[in-house]
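Hi R.,

Here are the chain sequences for the assembly we discussed:
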Amino acid sequence: MVILGVDPGLERIGYGLVRTEGSRLEVLRHGLILSPRINLPDRLAFIHREFRTLLSETNPDSLATERLLFAANKTTAFQVAKALGVILMVAGEQGLPWAEYSPPEVKQAVVGNGSADKKQVQFMVRKLLSLQEDPKPDDVADALAIAITHALRSRITSLGTKR
Amino acid sequence: MVILGVDPGLERIGYGLVRTEGSRLEVLRHGLILSPRINLPDRLAFIHREFRTLLSETNPDSLATERLLFAANKTTAFQVAKALGVILMVAGEQGLPWAEYSPPEVKQAVVGNGSADKKQVQFMVRKLLSLQEDPKPDDVADALAIAITHALRSRITSLGTKR
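And here is the predicted structure of the full complex:
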């Protein structure tokens, strides 16, 4: 199974493509979609094009995104939600299964501690994916952690199903 | 000029199409886009299709939407923002000029009082658009009020430019 993990944003969208085979996890690709500082409708149209291109190039089996929690900056949170709306719409149009996980769920799945700090998450992402270096920047590390969370959760679910 | 006013939502999107000619305002069409209770990505894809169809049928010169303010229900506010993201993306793809107005700005423009109540707004919408009855439901009345706001604001701007 190939999972696309996405850390949504208006300005920066982190993504990480992870393949699972048995208990093995492997990174296929990771990166950032950076949108130019143009007016909002044009920016969302840009994200639409870029995200569709990413899906057609990578052809994942499922999409996992970070659940939005209320940030200190409310305006930013709304802008992120608008961009996420476009991303989820594309998933809907392509029939791509989707799951979302809150930051504590990701930390719990990856580190085993729902209040782990960023460094611990990065360390475990690096270890689980057998990377030579810590994944960077933060948006990409978060996207990979979300993809890993979905991989681990899906494994538990499919084991459960087999019983 | 033909203005499409939109009151965004995930479940219900109110819209009103208003034509301005000199100081005259006329409703061309109004209605609701109601999305089925399916999973979120499919629902956003539904909104995408319906909104594109609405634009191709009505061919407006500009789009005006309600600015999101923080509601009591935060989850609802995020869902509305996701739907609005899809709507604005379509506007961006079609090169449609866009403006947004907060509820107090709409009340100020339509009633002349930024803290007017819903009934006063409906009364003035009916009067300004020469309607036989109060516009209903609320989502449609709000969408028409947003279109009127944009019409009145654009008039002021263009008068200002002539000087």
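The beta strands of chain A are 2-7, 12-21, 24-34, 62-66, 98-101. Residues 2-160 of chain A form a domain with the Nucleotidyltransferase; domain 5 fold (CATH 3.30.420.10).

Let me know if anything looks off.

Best,
T.
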